Please model this.
Amino acid sequence: MNLEKLFTMQQQLDDRIVHDHNLNGRNLLAEKIVALQVELAELANETRCFKYWSKKPSAERTIILEEYVDGIHFLLSLGLACDYRTITITDAKPETDDLVYQFGVVFDGITTFKKSLSKENYEQLFREYTVLGSLLGFATSEVEQAYVKKNIVNHERQDQGY
Model:
């Protein structure tokens, strides 16, 4: 994934939102953390991996990818807010193929990052999120393409007063 490109695109979107919504000088870190938590929960909901009581299948792959990419938007936005634009995300192998477990790891990673906004915690959170993407079957090139597509949609939404 070309993180430099994605950070640049996210910076443009974030700057636009701050300008259009008159948020200059406001610290949005807490809101961005909650947004990431919500997006992660929405992703889990679409996979239905934790719904042991239900026989209904998961959402279509394209919907799951879009939800996954929504999380990428907020991960990038958090990195920008903390000035962690230059990061190293090494490939990490999943400890297990259990999606429920990996969702838990990512939720825990968000909490750890919230308690200590260190670059190390941010990189670990990002790494675990990419592991989740891998478990969901997404190639990094596919995630990048979906991010670009959703970024365009997000700008269109701003055009429409979203």
Observations:
- The helical segments are 3-20, 29-47, 61-81, 99-115, 119-135, 140-159.
